[in-house]
Design goal:
Distance between the termini: 23 Å
Number of domains: 1
Order of helices and strands: HEHHEHEHEHHEEHH
Largest sheet: 6 strands, parallel
CATH superfamily: Decaprenyl diphosphate synthase-like
CATH topology: Undecaprenyl pyrophosphate synthetase
Number of helices: 9
Oligomer: single chain
Radius of gyration: 19 Å
Structural class: alpha/beta
Length: about 260
């Protein structure tokens, strides 16, 4: 029991994922890029389910960056439709499993239909107390920091705060996701080794894990491998993948008991 508790405490509280490689995965199978995006949704489901079983507090998934608007118009349109479809089909499952969904980024550029779907999804799960799922859409780390600077500048201009009161804590409080722990573990798939303007402030002390696995092939075992690497990297607890799986099974068993009471 002590080992399980030590292992649980050594796990990352907040995992961020750059979901990369959908297009290349599809191309390797002679399929269009949208085929990869659709299969990437299955990897999202597996990752969310596995992270929840581990007891992770928050998962942030980089779904669509502010730079992605430069992609072909047809692909962007298909991505937006896929986003709407997934929101419609998945949000009730998230609600039922006590998971909280939030969409972070500049939502003003989305269609009214998509903005409405986002609002409905966030509202439905807003009171859930389980793991927070942040979907970064039309998001960029520079945009996030810029919005924080604008907000602070406005408060200074209005006389609400002084310039001398600006510190790291104040800036952090104005950023998206200021109410959850900063990122402990960043995962990027497909072999790319860069952060691509993703949560620049929140990644300040994150461990960065790069895997050659394309996103559609990323599953529970892939996440366990990344988390095991994190635990060993932090030298908090000498864990194995099997121990993490056992912890997940223990949590699942406890959750079943709680729900049957």
């Amino acid at each position: 029991m002590q080992n399980s508790q030590a292992l649980a405490e050594s796990l990352p509280k907040h995992i961020a994922v750059i979901m990369d490689g959908n297009g290349r995965w599809a191309k390797s199978q002679g399929k269009p890029r949208v085929f990869g995006h659709k299969h990437g949704v299955q990897a999202v489901r597996k990752t969310i389910r596995s992270a929840a079983k581990m007891g992770i507090q928050a998962v942030t998934l980089f779904a669509f960056s502010s730079e992605n608007w430069r992609r072909p118009e047809e692909e962007v349109g298909l991505l937006m439709e896929l986003f709407i479809s997934v929101l419609s089909s998945e949000v009730k499952k998230l609600y039922k499993n006590n998971l909280r969904l939030r969409i972070i980024g500049d939502k003003s550029r989305f269609s009214e239909r998509l903005q409405r779907k986002i609002e409905e999804a966030e509202k439905l799960t807003a009171t859930n107390s389980g793991m927070v799922i942040n979907i970064a859409a039309n998001y960029g780390g520079k945009w996030d920091i810029t919005q924080a600077v604008k907000s602070i500048s406005h408060k200074v201009a209005q006389g609400e705060i002084s310039v001398d009161s600006i510190d790291e804590d104040l800036i952090t409080s104005e950023l998206t996701m200021s109410d959850i722990p900063e990122v402990d573990l960043l995962i990027r798939t497909s072999g790319e080794c860069r952060i691509s303007n993703f949560m620049l402030w929140q990644l300040a002390y994150a461990e960065m894990y790069f895997t050659p696995v394309f996103w559609p092939d990323f599953g529970e075992d892939s996440l366990i491998e990344a988390v095991t690497w994190f635990v060993e990297r932090e030298r908090r607890f000498g864990a194995t993948g099997e121990q993490i799986k056992e912890l997940m099974e223990q949590r699942a068993s406890m959750n079943k008991k709680d729900s049957s009471v």
